[in-house]
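Batch job 17 of 40 flagged for manual review because the log was empty.
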Amino acid sequence: MLANLRGSNENQFKCIVWLDSGADHCVFPVSFALALGLSPPFATLAGFTPGLEAQGIGLLGQTGFFERYGVTFDHKASVFHIDS
């Protein structure tokens, strides 16, 4: 899924994200934080890790995504729906 992340300074960054209903939190590569203009230590509700750099994707987890949006999975039809 394509997402448009926004930093506190209005920087924006388009990236690929995966819904991960098993993840407790949203996690992104450190390079995403730098693209958003964030500097360590990061004062955010999301985590940033060099462990996702090779994949180049972010994970949308329970805290920060699933708690804010209704998500319905239709396994039979192989689709999902996000209520905004």
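Reviewer: the log was empty due to a logging misconfiguration, but the result itself is present. The chain has one domain: 2-83. Unflagging and moving on to job 18.
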